[in-house]
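Q: Given only this backbone (334 positions), what sequence would you predict?
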């Protein structure tokens, strides 16, 4: 009798082990601490795109939401392996931080049906994977209004990393916002073809400044540091990106266009923990507090109350649908 009872227990243990090991992590019950992993294309010290995601991940760790892990500076060829490794180790939610994670996520996710994958700024979706995108062009439209109200030369500049939709859209919205204030204003954009080349970004910004631009919009991750150096050297106002980057150029950075990655992570965790995951391409903007702009810091006195009020009114009009911000994937003529 005891021998038969022991065999039954052994069989149950084997079945439980097989179920636990099938397809990666198990779906978390409400209230339990999750295992969350983040795979980054760049350095957590870039003060921009990757740093914002790392900050959001650490916030979840610090507030007790999850046990976390991350990999930084993961090359395109290694993304699939990194995703697979985390899923195989039982991580219930894995974030790929960038559009370039789309195809690897789409390939890996079906092999790990008990793991959820989120591609930030991607365009893929399926049974256990989704994409979350920032409508950051809404903010940049408003910052175009700010720049157009503050420029003295009526010439604005923009430095972007690559001519891809996630960079072109906010820059084109910046142009549209500026032209909503002054249809005759000139907005010139330069795409340097790199996320990392500080010198190229500096040269591009200097060329724009030499052409008469007195306000520079920057969206270039680590390379952006070069553009900020150029602005500091010529005492030209600039706009930071993703994080509040005022500390990088406090004398000239009027504000930063924020992408609140921590908010995006919160929304994803809520979906999984509450068993409401949807394999969709989500778009979050001003009304979701997923985007916005940073404080003016020590430059606050340079921004008049009239301009601040106009920015807030424009924000409300965008949220209410009174202003339709153009979403353009290709640059328009200057």
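A: Predicted residues:
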């Amino acid at each position: 009798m005891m021998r038969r009872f022991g065999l039954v227990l052994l069989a149950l243990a084997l079945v439980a082990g097989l179920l636990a090991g099938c397809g990666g992590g198990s779906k978390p019950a409400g209230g339990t601490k999750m295992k969350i992993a983040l795979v980054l294309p760049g350095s957590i010290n870039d003060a921009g795109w990757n740093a914002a995601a790392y900050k959001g991940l650490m916030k979840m760790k610090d507030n007790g939401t999850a046990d976390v892990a991350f990999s930084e500076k993961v090359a395109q060829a290694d993304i699939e392996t990194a995703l697979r490794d985390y899923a195989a180790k039982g991580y219930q939610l894995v974030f790929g931080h960038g559009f370039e994670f789309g195809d690897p996520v789409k390939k890996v996710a079906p092999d790990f049906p008990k793991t959820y994958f989120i591609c930030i700024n991607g365009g893929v979706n399926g049974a256990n994977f989704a994409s979350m995108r920032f409508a950051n062009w809404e903010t940049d439209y408003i910052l175009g209004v700010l720049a157009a109200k503050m420029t003295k030369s009526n010439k604005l500049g923009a430095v972007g990393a690559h001519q891809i939709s996630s960079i072109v859209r906010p820059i084109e919205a910046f142009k549209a916002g500026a032209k909503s204030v002054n249809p005759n204003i000139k907005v010139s954009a330069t795409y340097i073809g790199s996320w990392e080349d500080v010198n190229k970004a500096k040269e591009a910004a200097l060329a724009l400044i030499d052409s008469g631009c007195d306000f520079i919009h920057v969206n270039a991750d680590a390379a952006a540091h070069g553009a900020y150096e150029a602005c500091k050297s010529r005492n030209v106002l600039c706009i930071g990106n993703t994080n509040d980057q005022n500390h990088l150029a406090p004398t000239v950075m009027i504000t930063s266009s924020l992408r609140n990655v921590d908010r995006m992570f919160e929304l994803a965790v809520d979906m999984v923990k509450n068993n409401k995951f949807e394999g969709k391409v989500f778009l979050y903007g001003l009304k979701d507090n997923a985007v916005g702009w940073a404080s003016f810091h020590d430059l606050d006195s340079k921004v008049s109350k009239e301009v601040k009020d106009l920015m807030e009114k424009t924000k409300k009009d965008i949220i209410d649908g009174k202003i339709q911000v153009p979403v353009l994937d290709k640059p328009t003529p200057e």
